[in-house]
Task: inverse folding
């Protein structure tokens, strides 16, 4: 027993020494930390890495809405409670006027970031997207910024239009798009994709598309969703692939992790605990030593997400809508002041972050 404790302490000291010196941890170190480190140890190590990018009491937030412009989708991911197959009742596509009304409401609520996220709808050609985004840019200028599509939708769109990733990125850029974010990544291992989402994309395609997006001069982000049936090794593989992509491109402005909501989905299951989410945030902060911003998910964790600031996160969204996660059980509060006051109680000074004015 005594020897076991000594081994644990020396292993922890070795990893802590790496983190203190600014050396990166390995996948084996991450595995060890997950299994053996206390919450306090993880917070401390994550705080060290966080401190390289942000002052201890600093954090930022945005008021944003996710605009689910269509729920028609042919991908049939088994963890999705949102989609309707083409021709099924309840399928929709938003008009420009619907989208403008949502953007006007966002502005009225003090927000200025919209993120477009919908299904793989075979009825929507590339021109639908280019017209929509160009009309938003013409109507709102820089008063609103938007994350136009996720990489998953971008992949489908390029395939559907029979264009290369580079050509697709250039066409969207010419329509006023500045961001195509890393949403739709869930767990980036080929095994996970084959188990749950075999029509969506392969991991190799995902990163090739993201590389083309970066090379076209568009901005992008990394995301991750945990709480399906993924293994620890799969979580670490996702982090490793993300860190490697950032080493190679430097294109990832932030990393956002949220948790799977299982209600009304084909695979079902139960939600992971907030405690598990927070430990994973800390592990992500320690592992992703080359990404400046780690975002914690109010959308899926509500106020508890702000505890993530102590686990290495430095940024969060205050969402006003996301049909995809709401359909699977997420609840949204518009009482922003209550949420922000919790951040202040924890000792942080939240500052609004305007994506339109920053590169991140
Ligand atoms: S997660 Fe996205 S791609 Fe998969 S079925 Fe749902 S809407 Fe379609």
Result:
């Amino acid at each position: 027993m005594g020897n076991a404790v000594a081994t644990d302490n020396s292993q922890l000291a070795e990893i802590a020494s790496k983190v203190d010196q600014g050396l990166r941890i390995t996948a084996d170190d991450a595995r060890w930390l997950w299994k053996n480190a206390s919450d306090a140890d993880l917070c401390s190590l994550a705080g060290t890495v966080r401190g390289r990018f942000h002052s201890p009491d600093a954090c930022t937030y945005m008021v944003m809405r996710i605009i689910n412009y269509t729920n028609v989708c042919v991908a049939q991911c088994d963890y999705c409670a949102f989609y309707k197959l083409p021709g099924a009742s309840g399928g929709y596509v938003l008009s420009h006027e619907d989208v403008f009304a949502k953007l006007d409401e966002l502005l009225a609520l003090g927000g200025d970031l919209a993120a477009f996220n919908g299904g793989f709808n075979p009825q929507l050609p590339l021109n639908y997207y280019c017209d929509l985004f160009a009309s938003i840019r013409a109507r709102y200028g820089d008063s609103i910024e938007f994350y136009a599509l996720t990489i998953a939708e971008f992949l489908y769109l390029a395939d559907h239009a029979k264009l290369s990733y580079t050509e697709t990125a250039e066409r969207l850029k010419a329509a006023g798009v500045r961001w195509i974010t890393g949403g739709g990544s869930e767990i980036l291992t080929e095994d996970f994709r084959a188990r749950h989402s075999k029509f969506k994309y392969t991991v190799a395609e995902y990163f090739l598309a993201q590389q083309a997006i970066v090379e076209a001069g568009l901005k992008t982000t990394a995301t991750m969703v945990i709480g399906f049936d993924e293994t620890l090794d799969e979580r670490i593989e996702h982090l490793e692939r993300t860190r490697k992509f950032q080493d190679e491109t430097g294109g990832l402005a932030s990393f956002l992790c949220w948790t799977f909501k299982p209600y009304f989905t084909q695979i079902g299951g139960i939600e992971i605990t907030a405690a598990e989410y927070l430990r994973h945030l800390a592990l992500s902060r320690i592992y992703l030593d080359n990404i400046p911003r780690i975002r914690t998910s109010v959308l899926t964790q509500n106020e508890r997400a702000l505890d993530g600031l102590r686990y290495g996160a430095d940024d969060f969204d205050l969402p006003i809508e996301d049909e995809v996660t709401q359909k699977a059980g997420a609840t949204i509060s518009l009482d922003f002041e209550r949420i922000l006051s919790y951040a202040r109680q924890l000792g942080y000074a939240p500052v609004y972050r305007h994506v339109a004015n920053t590169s991140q």
In short: The first strand starts at residue 58 and ends at 67. The pocket of iron/sulfur cluster is lined by residues 73, 75-77, 80, 82-83, 119-120, 152, 200 (CB under 6 Å). The mean pLDDT is 93. DSSP finds 14 helices and nine strands in the chain.
